[in-house]
Amino acid sequence: MMARAVVFDCDGVLVDSEPHSAVAWAAALGRYGHRVTPADVATCTGLGYAATYARLAALSPARPLPPPEALAPEVLEALAASFDRGLRVFPDAAECVTALAFDGVPLAVASSSRRDRLDLTLARSGLGRYFAVTVSGDEVERNKPAPDVYLAAADRLGVRAADCLAVEDTGLGATAAVAAGMRVIGVARIPTEVGRLLAAGAGLVDRLDPAMLRELL
């Protein structure tokens, strides 16, 4: 069945934001005596804010932290400061988004991030204007790997989930999109996620290409 819309993940698919995430979490948690490394944050790739908070806080359980909602503005502030030093948009993703938008293909973003982080990232990337719909992980009952964000994106686009093509970079995200009934393209940005993408049922590509995506529409 041919797809009628394309739903992109954000972090890791559209933008190279994971290094910024590592900086932001280390800065925010460091204020409270928590030592967090990029490797620690990398284990949280694909998780939403709440799950990332829980996993990183558990590394130093004896050191108190503000509750998740109180810490969130501090993480966001540190993320914005890191973005100020340069947020890289993946060229292949930008080419695909602009080409598909020019063709009139309905586009959405389905992200595990909080709404405030998603809005910040899309604004700083310059890609936000191309998406008719954006859905964040804190706007649905269950975050990835549950299908909720993808089902919500399809519903807001007015398209059946089965008629959507999803683009992901993690196994958790691909699992969510497959569970929603979407066909999934997995872009191999992270070597350790390749096996997880394949196991989830994604079709793997080294880079995104507008011609390839058009063939699937």
What does this structure look like?
- It is a single chain.
- The chain is α/β, with parallel strands linked by helices and 217 residues long.
- It folds into two domains: 5-16 and 87-215, HAD superfamily/HAD-like (Rossmann fold); 18-84.
- It has ten helices and six strands, in the order E-H-H-H-H-H-E-H-E-H-E-H-E-H-E-H.
- It has helices spanning 18-30, 38-42, 49-57, 68-84, 91-102, 115-125, 148-157, 171-179, 194-200, 210-215; strands spanning 5-8, 107-110, 133-135, 164-168, 183-187, 203-205.
- A six-stranded parallel β-sheet has the order 3-2-1-4-5-6, with helices on both faces.
- Helix 1 packs across helix 4, helix 4 (68-84) runs parallel beside helix 6 (115-125) and helix 8 runs parallel beside helix 9.
- The longest helix has 17 residues, at 68-84.
- The chain is globular, with a radius of gyration of 17 Å.
- The model has no long low-confidence stretch (mean pLDDT 94).
Strand count, sense and closure of the main sheet?
6 strands, parallel
What is the arithmetic mean of pLDDT?
Answer: 94
Give the amount of beta strand, in percent: 5-15%
**Spatial gap, N to C terminus:** 9 Å
CATH class value of the largest domain: Alpha Beta
Oligomer: single chain
Question: What is the molecular shape?
Answer: globular
Q: What do we call the CATH homologous superfamily of the largest domain?
A: HAD superfamily/HAD-like
Helix content: 40-55%
Please give the number of β-strands. Answer: 6
Order of helices and strands: EHHHHHEHEHEHEHEH
- In total, the number of domains comes to 2
CATH architecture identity of the largest domain:
3-Layer(aba) Sandwich
CATH fold annotation of the largest domain: Rossmann fold
- Tally of alpha and pi helices: 10
Major sheet: order of its strands?
A: 3-2-1-4-5-6
Parts with pLDDT < 50 across at least 5 consecutive residues: none
Q: Tell me the radius of gyration.
A: 17 Å
Structural class: alpha/beta
